[in-house]
Amino acid sequence: MHQGSKNGLATASLVTGIVGVVCAFLIAIVGLILGVVATALGVSARRSGVRDGKTTAGIVLGIVAVVVSIVMMVIAYNVLT
């Protein structure tokens, strides 16, 4: 892999994390899935040697998307029961 494809993983992680956080508030299950994907892409990019802000932001946004999705699912469960 050359540096461009590694940096593409970081960019994909960042974009997926942003979309995951937005979807976490609207459709929690989609936000959860995108959060896991963003975290996995960020970790993969970091292991490939890319240690820039996009990689870190993608990992953090992925984790935030997962947490927000779980909170929204718990709130929805409590409202519906």
How would you sum up this structure in a few lines?
With 81 residues, this protein is mostly helical.
Quaternary form:
single chain
Order of helices and strands: HHH
Give me the secondary-structure category: mainly alpha
Low-pLDDT runs of 5+ residues are none
Q: Kindly state the mean pLDDT as a whole number?
A: 93
Shape: elongated
What is the tally of beta strands?
0
Largest sheet: none
Alpha carbon gyration radius: 14 Å
Q: How many helix segments?
A: 3
- Please give the alpha-carbon distance between the first and last residues: 50 Å
Helix fraction by DSSP (H/I, runs of at least 4): over 70%
Report on the structure:
The chain is built from three helices and no strands. It is mostly helical and 81 residues long. The longest helix is centred in the C-terminal third of the chain and has 28 residues, at 53-80. The mean pLDDT is 93. It is elongated. Helices cover 89% and strands 0% of the residues. Helix 1 (3-26) packs antiparallel against helix 2 (28-47), helix 1 packs parallel to helix 3 (53-80) and helix 2 runs antiparallel to helix 3. It has helices spanning 3-26, 28-47, 53-80. It has a domain at 31-81.
Which tags fit this structure?
0% strand, 81 residues, mainly alpha, 89% helix
Q: What is the topology?
A:
Elements: H1 3-26, H2 28-47, H3 53-80
